[in-house]
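Example 3.
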Amino acid sequence: MSTRWASGRPGSRVLREPETTPAPKAAPRTAVPEADHSQRAGLAEQAAAITAEWAPTAGRILLGAVFFWFGYHELVQPGHWTQYVPVVSESSSLAVVLVLAHGWVLFVTAAALVAGIAPRAAAAIASVLLLEIVISLVVTGVSDTALRDLGVLGLAVCLTGCQNQRLLLRG
Amino acid sequence: MTRLVGPRGLSVLIFIGLVALALAVVGWYQRDSGEVGPLPNYSSAGIAVHAETLQ
């Protein structure tokens, strides 16, 4: 006799069912979650494999996009960036030249990152550039921007160690 | 020993470097335009035109 809460209700379906019927149904009920679990595990493994394969490439291209943006603007509008040059006077021609040189290096490094030309060396150069940017920002005292660039520096350092890169320009 | 940058990669880098150099020349000639001026105020003109339309 079943002791479930609906067992004593007259006319309920639970009472009409024979006691032996739940046994064959129990097997598929346990098999379906196992299949679901294995399918989910397979999907998770597949997603992890795709992520491990493509994440360094995505990070490299996104870092290159950041470098392109800043490099382009430093090249075209150097007057907006001379305030970030430490030690040198903001209104001097030397500050403009330094910003232009910095923008040129950023632009070429961005091209190397996006196109996949020597990606680990480009990421190493990007790390050095970002370290210099973070130091110069800390010197001028802009702390929130410095912290943001510290995170980008972390991405560049990670990319310096990544060996499995896709979409590379070899030869 | 393998080279770090191949001939195609070197060509791309030289091309991008020349483009960046051209942009630097452009930037040098507009180096004094770093000051950002105030935004133009069109509010009074807009209200006047709108008032004329309503009448």
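The helical segments of chain B are 7-29, 43-54. Chain B has two helices and no strands.
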